[in-house]
Amino acid sequence: MKPRILSGVQPTGNLHIGNYLGALKNWAKLQYDYESIFCIVDLHAITVYQDPAELRRKIDQTAALFIACGIDPKQSSVVVQSMVPGHAELAWLLTCVTPVGWLERMTQYKDKAAKQESVGTGLLCYPVLMAADILIYQANCVPVGDDQSQHLELTRDIAQRFNAAYGETFVMPETRLPTVGARVMGLDEPEKKMSKSAEGPNHSIGLLDPPSLIKKKIMRATTDSNPAVDFETMGPGVANLITIFQAFSGWDDASVKSHFSGLRYGDLKKNVVEAVVAGLEPIQHKYAEIVADPAYLRGVLRESAERVMPFANATVNLVKSRLGIYTAA
Ligand code: TYM
User: Fold this and answer.
1) What percentage of the chain carries pLDDT values higher than 70?
2) At what angle do helices 121-135 and 149-166 cross, to 10 degrees?
């Protein structure tokens, strides 16, 4: 049997090249070596208020983008988290073995909580639901961007704590980061990670941005006071542009270094525009085909949920029996 991978994306904001290079591109490559489950984590999205109609639209859009980015639904399951009730049920069971101090230490929780007047309990418990997504499928490996590393350590801590208290139950999942693009930074603020919720018009490149907009955003990206690329002294903005180029082009380090050393920033940016536009063009083309056929997408989501449900239910039942409580009749 092949080892299993599980990963997920929240259906909020616009998916950007950070999501693609940090996660989706890697998933498309790994799916042939693993039994793969990729989730649209709508239960995570509602930890902060979402307009219901807009959320529904984003769930479908995110699923369509998974497929457009190369996830093959014949090979991999594309699962909407809320369609498999075991995720929420296991999250509760795990919440009961998770010390609140572990959750309060999470940096993403601290960042998000600092922006809210009243912090919902869901936001605090968010990483437990993430642990449930992973542990419910006994995933061996979780391909994510670097910002999720802390949540994955917590997942292992929760699994270990449960195993120690109730007997070997969960497989320990490994974190798998991409070699290039694990942390893509904002174009306007290269000290901050590119994020779906950031507001600046030139912060991120959306996977569905037209070429003219991609060009505009990259040409305005923050660089530094050097006139040209110097690998010894370059600032984070230039380093980020080079990372983006390298991740899209697939060039090795030596080729990137010899091509870009001494190149003026205007020319560097033109190279980056070309690589990004060429990389996103087939994704946008495939996306347009998928959304033209909503019945196809609904079929993929239904079949994927049906495929994974028996496994998810089996894990929930195992956990419940370990805890000494009743399983579903
Ligand atoms: P989310 O929706 O914020 O991001 C989805 C994926 O994109 C990666 N990513 C990035 N990678 C590189 N550079 C960036 N600037 C960047 N921004 C985002 C993220 O690391 C992630 O891999 N909590 C998760 C969703 C989730 C999940 C899971 C992931 C829920 N359950 C189970 C893995 C396994 C999140 O909010 O991702």
Assistant:
1) 100
2) 70
